[in-house]
Design a protein that fits this description.
- The protein folds into two domains: 40-114, Antifreeze-like/N-acetylneuraminic acid synthase C-terminal domain (Type Iii Antifreeze Protein Isoform Hplc 12), CATH 3.90.1210.10; 121-233, no CATH class.
- Helix content is 21%, strand content 26%.
- It contains four helices and nine strands, in the order αβαβββββββαβα.
- The chain has a five-stranded antiparallel beta sheet with strand order 5-8-7-6-9, covered by helices on one side.
- Strand 6 (143-153) and strand 7 form a beta hairpin.
- It is rod-shaped and about 130 Å long.
- 20% of the residues are buried.
- Residues 238-261 have low confidence and may be disordered.
């Protein structure tokens, strides 16, 4: 074919067509690669330190991750895109802020009570009868306000007067006795409280009377004033400084009733 002029022209044309085909294929592959690299996906990224042993429920309730769009090429191997896939799992090691959550970061295991607690929380049980523990109504995950009642004496007359105050607002119920066969249940109620409130609740349980009040999801701030016979009968506002209306009560010794303590 190359021995003739016509043959040479035909061969040259075929080579040109082949080169054009190769060029078009290369351009198509390049465009496909660029489009693939620009494709985005969404992954879960830690917003705060996630401690080893933290359960998926705790991580979600504390808002310890956010859904973040990333380029497909930037997604870590095994990156988690659906929070539902974490159900029943706990963190296998500490996860740093800004780190993508991956399947390798979590293991399947029994979720104990400790994994439901934030770092500044502690679990404490209070033993209550049916009336004070809402008689089997409470379920794990409910929020309650904890009230405590004490009896204090007057300096001058040693007359004892009872008072009630809000002790801990918005405590989380970790476990509660369930009513059976329509019978209200009393027993141990497990609460998650701030670590600074543990001693307060323990003291109130040992030396006073505890009531639990169930909070709705849209609960307003509860009243933190002391409630005494004066506030009920006379409408006088109680204060932490000892003034409970008329007559004036002065607590024996030093009693700090401010700031929820």
């Amino acid at each position: 074919m190359l021995a003739t002029r016509r043959g040479s022209l035909v061969f040259t044309a075929l080579c040109a067509l082949a080169a054009l085909g190769i060029l078009l294929f290369a351009m198509s592959q390049y465009q496909h690669t660029v489009a693939g690299n620009a494709k985005q996906d969404t992954v879960l990224v830690a917003t705060s330190l996630i401690h080893k042993g933290s359960s998926a429920d705790l991580i979600a309730s504390e808002g310890l991750y956010r859904v973040t769009p990333v380029l497909v090429t930037q997604a870590e191997p095994g990156a988690i895109v659906d929070a539902g896939s974490l159900a029943g799992k706990v963190a296998a090691s500490d996860i740093l802020p800004g780190q993508q959550l991956t399947t390798a970061d979590f293991i399947v295991g029994a979720v104990g009570t400790a994994t439901q607690l934030a770092p500044d929380e502690r679990a404490i049980a209070v033993s209550l009868d049916a009336a004070h523990s809402l008689g089997g109504v409470l379920k794990a995950g409910d929020q309650v306000d904890v009230y405590a009642g004490f009896t204090v004496a007057l300096d001058a007359t040693n007359t004892e007067h009872p008072l009630v105050r809000l002790l801990i607002p918005d405590a989380t119920v970790l476990g509660a006795p369930a009513a059976s066969a329509g019978v209200s249940a009393g027993g141990d109620v497990m609460l998650a409280v701030n670590s600074d409130q543990v001693a307060t609740l323990a003291y109130a349980t040992a030396n006073g009377v505890i009531w639990l009040a169930l909070r709705p999801p849209n609960a307003t701030a509860p009243n933190t004033d002391l409630t005494t016979i004066n506030t009920i009968l006379l409408g006088a506002r109680a204060t932490a400084g000892g003034t409970l209306g008329a007559p004036r009560l002065v607590f024996k010794g030093t009693v700090n009733l401010a700031g929820g303590q």
